[in-house]
Design brief:
single chain, 423 residues, alpha/beta, Rossmann fold, four-stranded antiparallel sheet, globular
């Protein structure tokens, strides 16, 4: 099996390689093709990954190229983890948001919109190349904002693509730990990427939701020494468990004020990345740097490998991915990409349940964000100022015409080199 990694110069790549090494006895990958447009980062990450493989004593061949067509040729799977404009573009996104008095976040609101505008055209070009060169390959998308990018790929290119996020697996493992459960905890999970809720949880086919809800603030205190991301009172009020990203919607004003008084998350991530690249460049390999844990993305490799293993297996398994919802929920269009539990096997991907109705408070927000996503995709492809402004006006974290125009003008000025459709 050949797997291509697009954006292999990412500092996340060693965690992915670590996953392939740890699961090599049960899931054998013969070739990893690294591709990145930055030859410097590509060289650092490919050499570091080769040292990891050599130390582990497993048989995986790594090749590296800056040519997309070469990387994806004869690949069974293609993992996408690109960042158009790099961390510097993310820093600008967050600055633009705060200057306009709105939440600064990479994947939602003004920041997610800006990231999507830059990324959609590039990912669709990659998708077209995949369809032309390796039409039977699955594209596993980690590129942010994952839900919007996956919807654009499925609707505009017709390739086989599924979007992934580590949040569902992080929540599953955290909840299992709170209940001292050994083995798999199955989550009944619904929403969009970074806009989702745990509706129920099962262990050995028995619901453990009641026991989970009793855990209160512990449910979303994902790190022991940090404050709970979402308050117990909020969880009690809605009766289901929101993902950590819902805090931007539930506590918008509070978080905005906090963001004004601390360094940008993007600047911290940029510094972490620079230090990680220095670590990866060292001649003597010992272990993965502890600093990698500060970068975020824990269980990223496990999420990817679980889905890839499922897609080559005759045996069906349930995985939470971003994919066309196909009637899982009656109040959404069948082609809408949602983050849900899906049945996955070598036969493809289908929803694990059909014909359900979302809780009203969730449905209203999901439909609004889905409309934002649809306008954003069209704006990115057509360069329509009207569609771009409508997207920002629709999003609850922006929400008015004056701010929408102000933000769009700044994005077009700062990121014009990445936005060819806007002339």
């Amino acid at each position: 099996m050949k797997i291509a990694i697009i954006g292999a110069g990412s500092t996340y790549t060693p965690e992915l390689i670590d996953g392939f090494i740890k699961r090599h006895s049960s899931f054998s990958v013969k070739e990893l093709s690294f591709m990145d447009i930055d030859p410097g980062r590509l060289g650092i990450l490919s050499e570091f990954s080769k040292k990891m493989i050599k130390k582990a004593g497993v048989s995986i061949n790594i090749s590296a190229t800056t040519v997309l067509e070469e990387a994806i040729k004869e690949a069974s799977f293609i993992i996408s983890q690109i960042r158009v404009g790099g961390q510097s573009a993310r820093v600008f996104d967050e600055k633009i948001a705060l200057e306009s008095e709105v939440i600064a976040q990479e994947t939602t609101g003004a920041g997610g919109f800006s990231c999507a505008l830059r990324t959609i055209p590039v990912m669709l070009e990659i998708g077209k190349k995949v369809k032309e060169i390796s039409p039977s390959a699955w594209l596993i998308n980690f590129t942010n904002p994952s839900g919007i990018i996956t919807e654009a790929l499925l609707q505009k290119t017709g390739i086989k693509a599924a979007g992934l996020c580590n949040v569902p697996l992080v929540m599953e493992r955290h909840f299992a730990g709170l209940l001292d459960i050994k083995g798999k905890l199955e989550l009944d999970y619904a929403g969009l990427n970074h806009l989702s809720w745990v509706v129920d949880a099962f262990h050995n086919r028995k619901s453990v939701m009641e026991e989970l809800l009793k855990k209160g603030d512990e449910l979303l205190r994902l790190k022991k020494d940090e404050e709970s991301l979402i308050k117990e009172s909020t969880i009690d009020a809605i009766g289901i468990i929101p993902s950590p990203y819902l805090r931007y919607f539930y506590y918008e004003k509070k978080i905005l004020e906090e963001q004004k008084n601390v360094p940008l998350r993007a600047e911290k991530v940029k510094e972490i990345e620079n230090n990680l690249l220095k670590e990866y460049s060292k001649k003597n390999f010992k272990n993965l740097p502890e600093l990698l844990m500060e970068r975020g993305g824990s269980l990223y490799s496990e999420s990817a490998i679980n889905v890839i293993k499922a897609l080559v297996s005759e045996k069906e398994s349930i995985q939470i991915v971003n994919y066309s919802q196909q009637g899982a929920f009656n109040d959404m269009k069948k082609e809408n990409v949602m983050e849900l539990p899906f049945k996955i096997s070598s036969r493809g991907i289908s929803p694990s349940y059909k014909g359900r109705v979302l809780p009203q408070f969730a449905a209203v927000l999901i439909k609004r964000i889905k409309m934002f996503e649809e306008f954003t995709i069209e704006a990115a492809l057509t360069g329509s100022r009207e569609k771009a402004i409508n997207a920002l006006k629709i999003h609850p974290l922006v929400g008015n015409s004056v701010k929408a125009e102000e933000i769009l003008n700044k994005i077009l000025e700062v990121h014009k080199q990445y936005l060819p459709a806007f002339k």
